Amino acid sequence: MAFLTDLEFMKDFITGNRVPIVGAELNRQQVEQYLVEVLGYEKSAVEVDRTLAFTAAGDPWTSKLDLVVSVGETPIMVIKCAAGSLGSREKEAVSAARIAFDAPVPVAVVSDGSTALVFDTLTRKQIGEGLNAIPTPARATELAATPAEPLDAKNMDRARIVFRSYDSMNVNK
Q1: Is 139 helix (H, G, I), strand (E, B) or coil?
Q2: Distance between CA 143 and CA 36 in Å, rounded?
Q3: Are strands 107-111 and 46-56 parallel, antiparallel or unpaired?
Q4: How many CB atoms lie within 10 A of CB 2?
Q5: What confidence tier does 1 reach under pLDDT thresholds 50, 70, 90?
Q6: Domain ranges within the chain, ordered by starting residue
Q7: Model confidence over 96-151: pLDDT tens digits?
Q8: Are 110 and 117 in contact (CB under 8 A)?
Q9: Nearest-CA neighbor of 145 among 155, 135, 132?
Q10: Residue 81: which of 152, 14, 9 has the closest Cα?
Q11: What is the pTM of this model?
């Protein structure tokens, strides 16, 4: 078992903060670089480790979202970075995108840094595969122009329970 002092650290591409290299951290760094260097997002448009706190089935839950991409003040994409099977993380990512803000953000992404699965948050359907399927800033601006309606209480509760169920299985979060 590695103790915190035994871990290697690196500089986060977006924040410049020192972060331990555990779990999917290397994958997240690849996604951060792709967003900025290939797709053209400004670093300021990408939020790292956004806190997500809520109550599900009467129990408080706090977690962090790997990446949230915004256009101006409007969040348009939640990205889950995974070290393993992307398919096993799709419900977690979509649920996070549904509950993280007052209304669902349009896009949820799961990526291992080499490829990605892209989902329409409202329909929960896969709309693309591969890093090139992640919306560009121009497409993100189009998505931001049509805000979604907030989820009703029943759907919000369900999405919170789904997210908590998957998030509780994460190691090194």
Answers
A1: helix
A2: 19
A3: unpaired
A4: 9
A5: very low
A6: 7-167
A7: 999 999 999 999 999 999 999 999 999 999 999 999 999 999 999 999 888 899 99
A8: yes
A9: 135
A10: 14
A11: 0.91
β-strand pairing of 126-129 with 74-81: unpaired
Question: What's the rounded Cα separation, in Å, for the pair 14 and 67?
Answer: 10
- Alpha carbon 37 to its chain's center: 19
Distance (Å, whole) CA 41 – CA 46: 8
Q: Quick check: 7 pLDDT over 80? A: no
Q: Is the dihedral of CA 32, 149, 119, 80 positive or negative?
A: positive
- Contact between 48 and 15 (Cβ < 8 Å): yes
CATH topology of domain 7-167: tt1808, chain A (3.90.1570)
Torsion over CA of 15, 72, 100 and 68, rounded to 10 degrees?
Answer: -30
Task: Please report, as a single letter, which amino acid is at residue 61.
Answer: W
Q: How many residues does the chain have?
A: 173
What pLDDT digit, counting tens, does each position of 71-90 carry? 999 999 999 998 877 877 89
DSSP string of 98-135, one letter each residue: HHSSSS--SEEEEE-SS-EEEEETTT--EEEESGGGSP
